[in-house]
Amino acid sequence: MTSRTWSRTPISLALALAIVCTYSMVGFAAPQQGQTGPTGDLSVVGEVSVNGTNAISGATVFSDSTITTAQNSSAVVSLGKLGRVELLPNSSLKLSFNETGVSGMLDSGRVRVSSSSGVSATVTTKDGAAVADNSQSDTFTVDVECGNTVVSTQSGKVELRAGNTVKQIAAGGQDTAGTATPGTRCTRFQQPEMHGLSSGALAALLLAAGGAVAAAIIAATHNSDFNFGGTPVVISPSR
Length: 239
Prior knowledge:
239 residues, 2 helices, eight-stranded antiparallel β-sheet, Jelly Rolls
């Protein structure tokens, strides 16, 4: 009897461990008390956490969840008729949503939002907010990797609101708010000597450079031993 009891103990422990692991993986999906409304379906690649707990594909995400992706990792939250939210590597976003809209607070990295027509979509950063035009479907990306906020619109139209400034960003356009951190990819390859030149000044500079090259070519032609179009002059070595 005793040997049979001991033989069952490892099985019981393994089963209990599996149950604990399962609950720890999906515990973040439990709604807060009294919380109702839409939910999101999560798909992950690599290492992703929701509210500090490791996440797996197929888990349910509720509003006001914080999603974090590690290096070389990404996460997609599908929100049904509302749209979808994609976090790229090294990103952290607090995602909120209800029946009429989606909003997020981007703390780091990059996020791409696709919203349906009639659905409001807003991503807030420390520099301002990207607000999609809810009269149409929109797809836009918000990037804070360099310390400032970069908003690019893939489809639809988005407003970048920063302080008292509102910038309209149509499909294919991009604009920024804030100042990039020195040493990041956004500033590392800038050429200070060209920064701040207007289009007219830059054109004048290029024209002047072109004139200098043309003058050098003409001077070299006149100083050569060739005289195109005329009679060549031969100097006899006996003179």
